Batch of 2 targets.
Target 1
Amino acid sequence: MAQTPFYRLPYGARRDLLAQQSHLTVQQLAKIAARQRSADADLIENYLTTYGLPEGVAVNLRVNGQTIAVPMVTEEPSVIAAASNGGRLLTSERGITTKVERREVMGQIVLSHVADRTGVKAWLIAHQDELLKVANEVHPSLIGHGGGARSLRIRCIPPYWMSLDLFIDVGEAMGANLVNTICEAVANYLKEHLTVNVLMSILSNYATHSLVTAEVAVPVDQLATKTIDGTTVAQRICDASDFAEHDPYRAVTHNKGIMNGIDAVVLAMGNDWRAVESGAHAYASRHGSYQSLSRWWLEDTTLHGELTLPLALGYVGGATRVFPLVVINQQIAQITSARELMGVTAAVGLAQNLAALRALVTDGIQHGHMQLQLKSLALSVGATPGEVPAVVGRLRGSTQPTTAQAKAALLAVRQANLEK
Ligand code: MEV
């Protein structure tokens, strides 16, 4: 008899099968059970449990003249501290200013093995209005909300492909399903009216038509550390910024620091961080080599910073409806639209970047990280929240504590507790 496929098994049977195959203990199964959330079970295939990540709030951020707290979801100990620290350095009257000139999602209908590309191109150009009309008939409610298909572009990609790019204003939504449905409808129309081989219809996550820029100007005095004056710190930050424009090895880490902030906000706001990641890194490579997404430069006594990246974030729809915390997080950050969300997210990325660069070019990154890393090191060796302060206290003296030292510190703490 054919075996029931895993995904068709009831929850308990799936869990028991896994437990048997992987030799899970009763305690491990209890952990899995404790984290189960019935609402998540219908969200994905083969649901087992819910993997929680910590959520915290970056404070001190001043964006477009408003001081806000921004929820961030991350497992990296220093990320929220760095965002708040960066924000504190950027608190002029307007703080970080952001702009979003256009917010459209692109969908592409890919034609393959096109023999007469000139003829097909001419046909597509002649029928542009008709194609946009077909696109706009798919979701009339989108037009009602002020959105809709705005324009199209035709690209010939050697040796034999063509891409019909549709630019769609998806309103406040993330719009992935919307754009895919529209593209498939237009593709069907093409198949009916032209002899073409439609290879696929899908949105592009290279969101070059949803760019957001965050800018800031900071008096150099604000950057001084206990031992280095503000001008020197600013000059070194500019040098680090130039280096990241020239060396892809450094650019990747520089951008990773920016994405530490961006991903954490994107997650807290229920958006698709994989889409954001892939789009951001493609944008970083737009000049032919991988470069930094931000730039810092000095004018007299002011350090200027700028970050531009594609961020097609949605304020409604998708996972924003599924996770109850998203609406709360939007409220905490005082975000009421997709454009505001794009701006605040980019602002966090810029603040995160400044905090990392300032630490790197002054005291070094480990100096500030260590206190936070010690807590996660203690947790990683099994310290309970109640034991963490004592374990951290014992580790504080060593410059580069190892897991073995952390284990020894935990043992010592437990021993001392027994002797009390
Ligand atoms: C660590 O998660 C992020 C940094 O490496 C970023 C950077 O180097 O700019 C500190």
Note: Residues 76, 253-254, 256-257, 260, 356, 360, 365 surround (R)-mevalonate (CB under 6 Å).
Target 2
Amino acid sequence: MKKQIRKVLVINSGSSSLKYQLFDMVKGERIAKGLVERIGCGGPKDHTEALANVVAELGNPKDIDAIGHRVLHGGEIFKESVKVTAAAMKKMKSLVKFGPLHMPANLGGIEACERIFKGVPNVAVFDTAFHQTMPDCAAQYAIDPKYYKKMGIRKYGFHGTSHKFIVQEAARLLKKPVSKVNLVTCHMGNGSSLAAVKNGECVDTSMGLTPLAGMVMGTRCGDIDAAAVLAIMAAEKLTPAEADTLLNKKSGLLALTGSSDCRDICTAAEKGDKMAELALEMLAYRTAFYIGGYNTVVGGADAIVMTGGIGENSKEVRERIVGRLGALGIKLDKKANAKARGVVATISAKGSKIPVVIIPTNEELAIAQDTVRILKG
Ligand code: ADP
């Protein structure tokens, strides 16, 4: 008989930080969480040293049964989470080109765990995996196919762990099997993405080759005419790396308003700040635009689901989005919307043709659950 998997450590290893959560999967409880910062820049010298700090913080636990790792990119190789073996590690290393900043940190976290927690199984859970069911008509770009064949340039999508988690929760809420549920899922945080889910599977998503595409985000511009980028690069003589920083770190809500934080922007808009007002309307417009499109893509959604820091908490943004969905027969229940904060709630009115529900996401728990599922086989 296989050993019971009780304590699962979840690691989210970034380029200069390492976040962790420890779960008791039998009780279904989180036991601990924490963050080690400034890795390689004043704090611990590398991910192994950072992890050693985590182990000390946890009181040198000897009873960790498994470790789940958030990994940015699974390319077309990983359509599912995977138990880490030498062969899986080699394949993951071949995907560093898709995330030159994040992937080495993610893989460094796994290697640190292999060194420190000898014999404890590691599972890699990919941000892209849930989106691997997208048909070619949604995933391919209209450019010379040689770039797909040689370089793997196509849409991959991200936040997959979160979208998958809320699909499962929404199916339960709607009392339908996952395989029969059609949804538009909206993950709205600092980074945001929408997914079109048909019969429980992803058929389209708003992020692309990288997390830059789609929604207006905290510091990312989202969808933009590629020729606009070329024009700016030419005019300002930007290198690709500088253009990358401009579009990923200095655009979006931050560029429009001076803040990437939705709370600040809502407060400023309330006081009559015109750019804050415009930013919120751009955000709401683009979200509603995607919801309308994805409702068509899934052949009629059973529900629109919102999650992430903004989706779970911002009644102002939700009201602006839902206010633009009248053509779908969707109506907001203003009172329910005003009350809903960080909990499962329906914010659409009784007569709404499609319900709009809030479901808090929990990516770390989803990673822990997947870790147990993969190891149980
Ligand atoms: P990340 O993508 O980094 O995980 P989160 O999901 O935590 O981000 O979302 C962060 C966003 O959520 C920020 O824009 C923040 O302003 C917004 N947010 C959090 N709480 C609230 C709130 N009470 N009202 C409005 N926006 C909120």
Note: The pocket of adenosine-5'-diphosphate is lined by residues 189-191, 218, 261-263, 266, 308-310, 313-314 (CB under 6 Å).
